[in-house]
Amino acid sequence: MRLGRSGDRVTVIERESLPGGLAAGFQPADGLWLEKFYHHLFRSDTRAIAMIEQLGLGDRLEWREPVTATLHIGRPY
Questions:
Q1: Boundaries of domain holding 52
Q2: Does residue 32 form part of some domain?
Q3: Does residue 44 lie in a domain region?
Q4: What's the number of domains the chain is made of?
C-alpha cells in the first residue's frame, strides 16, 4: 500500500482468479459463503486492523463472540 501511494508501481501475482490465498472464500451455492481455510482476526492485531482501516474497509469487520469451547477434565472453557 505504501509503495503504491508513494508512486511506485506494484504488481500483485496471484494464481487464482481472485486474490487472497487461503484468506479468501468462495460461494459453492447462492447465499452460501465458505472459507478456503480457517482464518480470524483478534482485536489485538492492531497493525492488521490499521491496514484494513487504511483501505477503507474497517466498517466491514465483524466482531463476534466465540461459539466454541474446549473441554478439559470434564469442564468446558
A1: 21-63
A2: yes
A3: yes
A4: 1
DSSP string, the chain: -HHHHTT-------SSSSS-GGG-EEEEETTEEEESS-----TT-HHHHHHHHHTT-GGG----------EETTEE-
Residues with Cβ within 8 Å of 69's Cβ and at least 6 positions away in sequence, in order, are 76, 77
pLDDT at 57: 94
Q: Report the pLDDT value the prediction gives residue 48, as an integer from 0 to 100.
A: 92
Residue 26 lies in a domain: yes
Is the pLDDT reported for residue 63 higher than 90? yes
Give the model confidence (pLDDT) of 41-62 as tens digits: 899 999 999 999 999 999 999 9
